[in-house]
Amino acid sequence: MYGEGDLERQNGEVDDSESWRPPIVRDYGRIIHSASFRRLQGKTQVFPGHESDFFRNRLTHSLEVAQIAEGIADRLNDVYRLTDHKINSRICAAAGLVHDIGHPPFGHNGERALDAKMKKYGGFEGNAQTLRILSRLEKKARYKEPFGGDDRAGLNLCNRTLAAILKYDAEIPAERDQDSKVAKGYYASEAVIVDNIKTRVLGGKKMPPRAKFKTVECAIMDIADDIAYSVYDLEDSLKAGFLTPATILATDEELLTRVADEVTDQIKDDIGEKIDGTRVQAAFVAIFSDIFASKPAAADDAAQESDISDFITAMRASQDLYVDSAKRTKLSSELVHEFIGGVELKIDEEFPALSKVALVKEIRIKVEILKQYTYLSTIYSNRVKLGEYRGTELVTDIFNALEKKNGHLLMPDDVRKQVQDAGKDKALKARHICDFIAGMTDRYAIEFWARLRSDAAESIFKPI
Fold first, then answer.
1. Which helix (H) or strand (E) holds 370?
2. What's the CA gap between 107 and 158, in Å, rounded?
3. Is 201's pLDDT higher than 80?
4. Closest CA to 235 of 324, 315, 312
5. C-beta of residue 202 within 8 angstroms of C-beta of residue 253
6. Distance CA 452, CA 444 (A)
7. pLDDT digit string (tens) for 79-115?
8. 141 Cβ partners below 8 Å, 6+ apart?
């Protein structure tokens, strides 16, 4: 499953002889101790962190994805009795830790705002930015000679660790139409790094025509991310009172149809069938059946048979999931355990690194239903969208200010120098500005914008 090229580092650095600290364990440590990883605590997952300490942020979400990914790998190693093709679960965990490290402030709205400003200069996309942070922007190591026109080596991770975050095997075009959606892939500036990763991980072998490069660890991380999204975004929504089992089961047909269409669109190529609203509702009935089945006994037979008594009992059971953290935890734990148990493995004997993992059909449908329902009913709600709209405008406003003639004077000294050194290269200047904004936490972005626009800005004695 692993060769020498997998454990080689970007700039050729050789680890010392400490046998108790293998290269992948070193990678895990470098990630944990990096500034970009710490900043995830200040980036919103679904609900803004200042609303409650309970809600997940990008950091706690990433920790959960890492644990689930490691659990999936450990289970596959055990169930399939893997020896020669044993999966390194620590690589899967490392990929989980960093999979969202490239997210800008304000999530996907911040991503769209930055991409709109970068469409003429190679675009912006969260996964591409993740690779750029790990392989270029973090200040851990450098190349002895510039590699791909840049001597920065980021965290200088092993090739196989970097490969585990390459979800999309495509170079983002240098220029795109203004109306185009965010393009997924990697930037041209990191194309030489991606080519080197592929060469080293595949041992110099050429991939089959039209095949996509995605390692088994990356696929496991991707599934772990879906599981975490589907379960824990639902848990946060239940805690916030945005959703209850009763409101979910009573969802109108229009929303059920929209969820079904989104699910079908996401997985039709994999399962070959269309999902309808009835299938969506049946999934929720199965999930919450135990909650409503455990209703207390009524005072007498007549009351138990009455519709109003059943209604009151059902509403109380539904409300319990909002107020009783033990019941929410139990539900989440059971779902995660069920979903991890639904992962299958198919070893690729010619290219073991590209072995396939996937959720079995019924579990895949269930995970996708939870994901899409929470997304459409909560993240699309007007209360959440108002905050996101502010984020879009704020990110755009900051970029507009910084790209002006003397905009670099508003930036921290190290970033200011990078922009100045870019000279007349507009694309490089824009990329440096984009890197700076993308690395901001939500709160820092708000503070920075306030320094530009607000009468109640931070003191000039607080560093930028």
1. helix 361-374
2. 28
3. yes
4. 324
5. no
6. 13
7. 999 888 999 999 999 999 999 999 999 888 899 999 9
8. 9, 10, 11, 13, 153, 154, 155, 156
For the chain, domain boundaries: 4-220+345-380, 243-338
What is the pLDDT at residue 85? 94
Containing H/E element for 344?
strand 343-346
pLDDT at 45 over 80: no
**Quick one: how far is CA 201 from the chain centroid?**
23
Instruction: Name the 3-class secondary structure at 449.
Output: helix
Assigned token pair, 299: 């005072």
Is the Cβ–Cβ distance between 201 and 194 less than 8 Å? Answer: no
Task: Write out the two tokens for 34.
Answer: 């990096």
Per residue in 170-186, pLDDT tens?
999 999 999 999 999 99
Cα dist from 436 to 105, 138, 425, whole Å: 11, 12, 17
| Structure-token pair, residue 122 | 């190679």
Strand partners, 359: 343
Q: How is domain 4-220+345-380 classified at the CATH fold level?
A: Hypothetical protein af1432 (1.10.3210)
pLDDT digits (tens, 9 = 90+) for 227-264: 999 999 888 888 877 888 888 888 888 889 989 998 99
- Cβ-in-10-Å burial (0-12, 13-18, 19+) of 86 comes to middle
Cβ neighbours for 11, distance < 8 A, ≥ 6 positions apart: 141, 142, 143, 144, 147, 153, 156
Write phi, then psi, for 171 (nearest 5 degrees): -85, 130
Q: What is the DSSP string of 187-199?
A: -GGGHHHHHHHHH
